[in-house]
Design brief:
Layout (H helix, E strand, L loop, with lengths): L2 H13 L9 H13 L35 H10 L12 E2 L8 H13 L12 H15 L7 E5 L2 H16 L3 H4 L8 E5 L5 H8 L7 E4 L9 H13 L4 E7 L11 H14 L7 E5 L23 H14 L7 E5 H4 L7 E5 L2 H5 L30 H35 L5 E3 L9 E5 L8 H4 L4 H19 L10 E10 L5 E7 L8 H23 L16
Helix pairs in contact: 2-3, 4-14, 5-14, 6-8, 9-10, 14-17, 16-17
């Protein structure tokens, strides 16, 4: 490269950067406009897909080889935006796929502006006031949890990170030197949990060197409360065997059934068992509230006066769930996912510890950063990440301060009302409701195929061939509704659960999950969507009855939870 080429390339790079004379706002706004102009324009306002379901990405072949030098900036930026064609539109009322973020425009805006300045929230010297913002959010939600000002917290990449923090802190309790020396000889510490909890806990145990077998699950039927005595019996048995217990992970409410484990009886049983076994520590109790944390906004709601006009039925259901979630007061830690019902983009999770010092000393090198040091001296050496984005922190802060307590109350109540509306509408349209007692934001349905067992319960008693045929039907309907097989005017994206039930020989039995997420849902919109779902199902039923739909070729693939 000669000097002339060097100067030309350097000048080109400078044009792509924020100019030193300004903050880059106008330049960033212009580049965002280029990206938006490359997005599909033909998308209907109700379509759950951006420009339709995922299509041909053959254009990536143009970029297979790394370029020798700078390329046309507009072309490259526009091409990157093309990768979003077929992305689910979470703000569409017909996107009922999962509990995923419908970000506020302001949280998306602060995420983009934060990216322009690239702060690293590891250290306040290079992240300005972001750590102060994080501390304020920790204080606000610690108060919601009923904890004292000695609580601490840290933003990280998701609910799985929260489980990593909790189990690691639990290991520090049962093996105080394990952070330095590793696990002591003898029995591997156990992590006790219930069947309600997320299946990532096994992989957390593997990542921490305990092995997946260290995760001991206590059975609990879906939709039914965990028996605290059964949990205590398992813990007692483990302690009697001389097995250390690092952590007890309780469900603060999962997506499918909103199953919430009782905290107070479990912590009382733990205190009793620790005394009986002369245990020098108490296992850490983590309350996994990634889904249900918004109910904490109702802990001080005037249910008698009902200022938001929720009505006695909805207010009663919210009150009952809020009472269970508020038992977090007795737990040692919790996790909040702002990218679920916190109106912030992926990913934004806050792990909270009732004892800040315990969190800040969870690995070697922790200097007790619970102490508030002068600016420039606060380094969060206790975090999983050293390179830690500030964007999730500011996005969560914007959401919380922007819409306030009543904003979150109304948002959550609208999701619950929408789910209840679907629960009332769909059973008469060929979709059997499998979660009639759910008080959460999700409901599960079985679309009965022509000529099959009349109910889901009877299907689970059927033979393998009938179950396989019903599963192919459920999967085909899932794809038809989503618009993968044409049908552009009736797209409704539900979640597909390939193994919601089990047959006599353990065969998986599929169902469909519906999770309202859009604030644009109301009774009229829900009714329109239910009607569309009924019409698509009727069309598939006709095709199945007359043998024109080759369901035998339908590939049923794994769906991550």
């Amino acid at each position: 490269m000669n000097r002339r080429v060097f100067e030309a390339v350097r000048e080109d790079l400078r044009r792509r950067m924020p100019s030193p004379s300004g903050e880059g706002g106008d330049e960033l706004a212009g580049r965002i406009r280029v990206a938006f102009d490359s997005l599909p324009r033909e998308t209907d306002s109700c379509d759950p897909w951006l420009g339709g379901p995922p299509g041909d990405y053959a254009w990536l072949a143009e970029y297979e080889n790394l370029p020798d030098g700078p390329q046309d900036a507009d072309r490259v930026l526009g091409s990157a935006a093309r990768a979003l064609r077929g992305q689910l539109r979470w703000h569409s009322p017909a996107t009922l796929f999962n509990m995923t973020p419908q970000p506020l425009l302001d949280t998306a805006a602060i995420t983009a502006v934060t990216g322009l300045h690239s702060p690293n929230a590891l250290w306040d010297f290079c992240s300005a006031g972001v750590i102060e913002v994080e501390r304020q959010l920790v204080r606000q939600f610690a108060r919601r949890a009923g904890w004292a000002d000695t609580a601490g917290g840290v933003f990280s990449f998701g609910g799985k990170a929260g489980l990593l923090y909790a189990v690691r802190m639990g290991l520090n309790r049962c093996g105080p030197d394990s952070y330095r020396e590793g696990l002591p000889p003898g029995r591997v510490p156990a992590v006790v949990t219930t069947a309600h909890n997320h299946d990532s806990l096994e992989s957390v145990c593997a990542l921490l060197g305990l092995g997946t077998d260290a995760c001991v699950r206590v059975p609990a039927p879906p939709g039914q409360n965990t028996d605290p005595d059964a949990l205590a019996e398992v813990i007692d048995s483990l302690l009697s065997e001389g097995r250390p217990i690092a952590c007890v992970v309780l469900s603060g409410g999962n997506i499918l059934h909103n199953d919430i484990d009782p905290v107070h009886p479990v912590t009382a049983a733990l205190d009793r068992l620790c005394a009986e076994h002369a245990l020098p520590y108490r296992p850490l109790v983590h309350f996994d509230t990634v889904v249900t944390w918004p109910w904490l906004f109702f802990t001080d709601y005037d249910f008698a006066g009902d200022p938001l006009g929720l009505g006695p039925e909805l207010a009663g259901r919210i009150r009952a769930t809020a009472a269970l979630v508020s038992q977090v007061r007795a737990a040692d830690s919790m996790t909040i996912d702002f990218h679920k019902t916190g109106l912030a983009p992926y990913s934004s999770s806050l792990f909270l510890s009732r004892d800040a010092v315990e969190l800040h000393r969870w690995v070697e090198g922790g200097r007790g950063e619970a102490e508030h040091r002068p600016h420039g001296e606060n380094v969060l050496l206790h975090t999983i990440e050293h390179s830690r984005s500030a964007a999730p922190i500011l996005a969560a802060w914007v959401a919380v301060q922007s819409v306030g307590v009543d904003g979150f109350r109304v948002y959550l109540a609208n999701l619950l009302m929408s789910n209840r509306t679907f629960m009332e509408l769909l059973p008469s349209r060929g979709f059997e409701l499998l979660t009639p007692s759910s008080d959460g934001v999700a409901s599960v349905y079985w679309p009965s195929p022509p000529g099959s067992a009349p109910t889901f319960a009877l299907l689970q008693e059927a033979g393998p061939s009938e179950i396989a045929a019903a599963n192919r039907y459920t999967h085909a309907l899932f794809r038809l509704l989503a618009g993968y097989e044409g049908n552009p005017y009736s797209r409704v994206v539900l979640g597909h659960l390939p193994a919601y039930g089990a047959g006599p020989g353990g065969e998986p039995v599929a169902a469909l999950r519906l999770v309202p997420g859009s604030v644009f849902l109301d009774e009229t919109t829900c009714s329109q969507i239910a009607e569309r779902m009924e019409q698509v199902k009727k069309g598939l039923d006709v095709a199945v009855r007359f043998g024109t739909e080759p369901l035998e070729e339908t590939r049923v693939y794994h769906v991550p939870e």
